[in-house]
Amino acid sequence: MSTATRYKTLKDLPREDYLAPGGTLCAGCGGLLAIRLFHKVLGKNVVWINAAGCVTIMMSYPLSPLKSNWMYTAFASAPAGAQGVRDALDVLMAKGKVPRTEDLKVVVVTGDGAAYDIGYQATSGAIDRALDFYYLCYDNEAYGNTGFQMSTSTPYGSASKTTPVASRNPLGNTKNKKDLFDAWRIQGAPYVATLCTSHGVDFLRKVEKGMGVHGPKLFIAFAACPTGWGFDPKETVEIEKLAIQTGVWPLKESMGGVVHHTMVPRTLRPVEEYLRTQERFRHLFEPVVKADAVGRIQGSVNAYWKGAAAAEGFEIKLADIAG
Amino acid sequence: MTEQLMTGNVAAATGARLARVDYVPAYPITPQTEIIETIAWWVADGTMDAKFVQVESEHSMLTAAGTASLTGARVFTATSSQGLLYGMEMLYNISGWRAPMVLVNVARGLAAPITLEPDHNDVLAARDSGFLQFHAETCQEVTDLVLLAYRVAEDRRVMLPAIVNLDGFYLSFTREKVSVPDQKKVDAFLPAYVLPHPFSASEPVAKASATMEGSLYTYFRYNTHAAALKGKEVFAEASKKYDELFGRSYGPVEGYMLDDAEYVLVMSNSFTALGRQAVKRMRQKGIPAGLLKLRMLRPFPAQEIANSLKGKRVVAVFDQNLAPGLGGILWPEITSALYHTKGRPEAVIPVVGALGGKQTTSKEMESIFEAMLRVGGGATPEPIFLMRDTELKHVQQAVARATKEVS
Questions:
Q1: Which member of B23, B57, B200 has the closest CB to residue A87?
Q2: How many angstroms away from the CA of B189 is the closest CA of chain A?
Q3: ipTM of this complex prediction, to 2 decimal places
Q4: Does the distance separating the beta carbons of A83 and B64 come in below 8 Å?
Q5: A66 contact residues in B (CB cutoff 8 A)
């Protein structure tokens, strides 16, 4: 990156923590880790605007692990909640009713259910109005808080409680993951980025970069979910790393509509290595390997990176399609 | 004070302007749209020092309204019918947030079938939401009730949002003379909105946190109820002050020829004018008729209703709404307000009428009094569903056309 950054190595991670430990979320929650890092970069003066999801339960009266402001709105309308707070702060500051020192960064934080599905209309409205806000989506690729039902973020081949693997439905979810990154980008959001906490410096720099951008900013954080995906909580960061190394979760950003991949794996590891770590994909390998399905996943990952490499002119060695 | 001819919609916008609201999130819907168009214009030409933003749905509109109120802005917005129901989830949230915004509902019947003219199924669907409810009959009342609603809603003893309801078409698009309150006096009546704990950098707050056990949830719900009940005395105080400043007095209910009446029609909003005409004609025939207009529906003025109706022979409740399988929505509320009153009326007749703004004649209104006169012998009164023979014929013709086979 050519622009000046505070974040050269992980040692530059701000020491201040605005999210106290010992919260009520699951052990190994990738989403919580993302929120913690995100907050460190933004600093203290934040109002979080939440929609229904796992993180909602973190704020159970009378306790709060946050040192910042919090507002729970409703499942479908967190971006509209951000609109109200942002507009009110702006008008009250303009009228001199609120001193500028009380200004806040307005940050929507939701899971993928709200970001991809039920809150999509309110999100589109906020982008259209060029609302100056941050949207942090902790993407665990399903409705985690209700027990892991599929969302439009659920990837092909994943089991979920509403796409159960059974004789007539051997693959689980058979739709492709919705491309929220491009949806925001194409609608004109000035900054869109994907994040993964296993790649901390990349994470910190992107949030830092977003802070310099006025308007709607989306951050989609890969949120490994031990409970929903089925893996040992201690494996969270390892699974995140595999998602990056296999190319399943591309780290990229879009500034003014121009896409740039911020971390290109020189040689993609086979997706199978990633898929095999999780219960939600077990049916792809047991009792027999479903080579077609695994091959299809590898094929779409390869196609994605082939396109990105051509567009940006980088070199990448794709993984073989098994079967 | 100046007098101006204006529609009910402009009277609502005028109330918002005089209240010096800071923020107006908006979304169009007939017959409310003139309100937000008027405000958009006033913000654009500098008449109002406020931020106006058109959002993409009533659900978002109400969400933004609520969160802005919790940030310390005085907030106004308006909707109708489907819009109110589309945002319904947020009404319960906003009252739970204790965000004292004011919402004008311009009443319109609910789909299906879709229609444009008024009845009160929309606003009465919000009766349990925790919003206070004030119902206007005239354009003057619309402006005045918006100002009174802010004063009551923002009172620390209450801190609840409020709905001011007016009928679509019959009032929203009817021009009447409105005595526009003097801004300086309004400023004295309605001091600046100061929220105790807004979102802030120096003193962060958590709002609307989850309550994961029933006792906490129950506590906050009871609190909302207690605050709504406080609205009665706060409304009385505010109304007294309003009378001192502007010379207009508003009670939670209002009687017409009530003192010596024996047969009383209970109703609300713009059709009340028709009710009064019927009362006059019955009086000319020597029948002691009277009327009780409902202005405040939440908090429910049970005691005032009981006091107004005790000792009357028969009461009829004109419900401009329909609860299929029950009848009218207000009838059981009025009846229960009377149950424990000594000298309660012998019967309370349920009447349903004027759905979707159905034209209602003086004959239909008089037929309600005739039904009251027929009551006797302790029999349970039959519910009355107003519709004229000529209307029935018209409907039958339409049905015949719709079902006619094309050769």
A1: B23
A2: 20
A3: 0.97
A4: yes
A5: 204, 206
B400 within some domain: no
User: For residue A1, what pLDDT is reported?
Assistant: 44
Residue B209 with chain A: CB contacts under 8 Å: 59-62, 64, 70, 72
pLDDT value at residue B379? 72
pTM, whole model, 2 decimals?
0.97
Residue B402, in any domain of the structure:
no
**Residue B335 lies inside a defined structural domain of this protein:** yes
Residue B215 at interface with chain A, using a CB cutoff of 8 Å: no
* B108 burial via Cβ count (<10 Å: 0-12, 13-18, 19+): buried
- Kindly state the tokens that stand for B319: 């419900």
Question: Cβ neighbours of residue B396 under 8 Å, at least 6 residues apart?
Answer: none
Residue B406: predicted pLDDT: 74
pLDDT of residue B381: 77
Low-confidence ranges of chain A (pLDDT < 70): 1-3, 323
* Listed residue (A246, A229, A252) closest to A321, CA to CA: A246
Percent of all residues in chain B with a pLDDT value above 70, rounded to a whole number:
99
B51: closest chain A residue by CA: A91
The secondary structure of residue A194, as a DSSP letter, is: E
Give every residue of chain B whose pLDDT is below 70, as ranges: 1, 377, 407
Residue B391 CB neighbours (<10 A): 14
Model confidence pLDDT, tens digit, residues B347-406: 999 999 999 999 999 999 999 999 999 987 677 777 899 999 999 999 999 999 999 877
User: B199 and A85: CB-CB below 8 Å?
Assistant: yes
| Cα separation, A59 vs B210, whole angstroms | 6
Cα separation, B254 vs B327, in Å, equals 24
Count of CB atoms situated within 10 Å of the CB of B18: 23
Write down the CATH superfamily of domain A10-265: Thiamin diphosphate (ThDP)-binding fold, Pyr/PP domains (3.40.50.970)
* Rounded Cα–Cα distance for residues B292 and B267 (Å): 7
DSSP state of A253: E
Strand residues in B185-280 grouped as ranges (E):
206-207, 253-256, 263-268
Q: Which residue of A has its CA nearest to B27?
A: A125
